[in-house]
Amino acid sequence: MPDVVRVNRDLPWREAAKDADALRPMLLDQIRHEDFRGRRVVDLGTGEGRLAFVVADLGGRVIGVDLDRVKLMHARAYAGIRDFRNVEFVLGDVEKTPYHEFARDPIDAVVSNLCMSPEIVWHSSRALRPGGAFIFCAHHGDHWKETRRGSRWAFYEDSMRDLLEENRFQVEFLGVDTTAVAFEDLREVELFLRDATVRRWVEDGRWQELADAFDRGERHLTLSYLIVKARRTAAPYAVD
Ligand SMILES: C[S@@+](CC[C@H](N)C(=O)[O-])C[C@H]1O[C@@H](n2cnc3c(N)ncnc32)[C@H](O)[C@@H]1O
User: In angstroms, rounded to a whole number, what is the distance separating the alpha carbons of residues 26 and 33?
Assistant: First the structure.
């Protein structure tokens, strides 16, 4: 069982803001160490396709799936502008639809950035061929912990490891990338987060939790990501 690789940093918010939305370097590292040439790859919750384009650049034949039609339209436009021939984007719900419905060929790898759930692990296990790679970045359970509200999209390393093993994956890499972002006051948090996030937090009480933490002198916000590479074992599922 591999040890968990941890990267921790403290950054002032202006510094953190420079790459807060970028694909995590630890994820890109795991992606770049996989041989995708000629391989059929599905990118789950592809959004505007940025991870799909990275894998396509590495030679993968990628299908990006999302349920947001507008994001898919942008992804297709980028693919056209950049003249990517080995990536396509399809509408679908990756928590409900068997992935063989998105790809006609056997699936060699499944990747994902910030779209993860137990249902997704379940479907990925049933879609991947033995030896197929499952590489993703999800929110870690400590993400935004100051707001005291977990997300169903967030996982701690132990629960993710258990979930993967229950679904016949062998874990090859587990990493946790954590940044404690420092602020002087809540106005700076407003500038750091998107308006829509601030609005959502005001409505659901998370903003108040954060304000209370700031009053106690805890003026930071934790960003934390779980990065995983696992491989489908040869253990078959019984035919239903
Ligand atoms: C945080 S965004 C990440 C987008 C993209 N992976 C990226 O890194 O830019 C999550 C994406 O997952 C998509 N998504 C959420 N639930 C989904 C589902 N059940 N099926 C397909 N896509 C889903 C959302 O529409 C959104 O585009």
Answer: 11
Beta partners for residue 233, in sequence order: none
Q: State which ligand 1 atom lies nearest to the alpha carbon of 47.
A: 27
Torsion-angle region of 69 (φ positive above 0: left; ψ -120 to 50: alpha; else: beta)? alpha
CA gap 85, 83 in Å, rounded: 6
Q: CA-CA distance, 212 to 31, in Å (whole number)? A: 39
- What would the pLDDT profile of 122-139 be if each residue is shown by its tens digit? 999 999 999 999 999 999
Ligand 1 centroid to 45 CA: how many Å? 3
Measured in whole angstroms, the distance separating CA 52 from the mean position of its chain's CA atoms is 12
Beta strands per DSSP E along 50-102: 61-66, 87-91
Pocket-forming residues, ligand 1, beta carbon under 6 Å:
45-47, 50-51, 65-68, 71, 93-95, 113-115
How does pLDDT run across 63-89, given as a tens digit for each residue?
999 999 999 999 999 999 999 999 999
Domains and CATH numbers, the chain: 20-176+227-232 (3.40.50.150)
Which residue has a Cα nearest atom 24 of ligand 1?
A: 45
Rounded distance from Cα 178 to ligand 1 centre (Å):
21
* Atom of ligand 1 minimally distant from the CA of 119: 19
- How would you class 91 by CB atoms within 10 Å of its CB: exposed for 0-12, middle for 13-18, buried for 19 or more? exposed
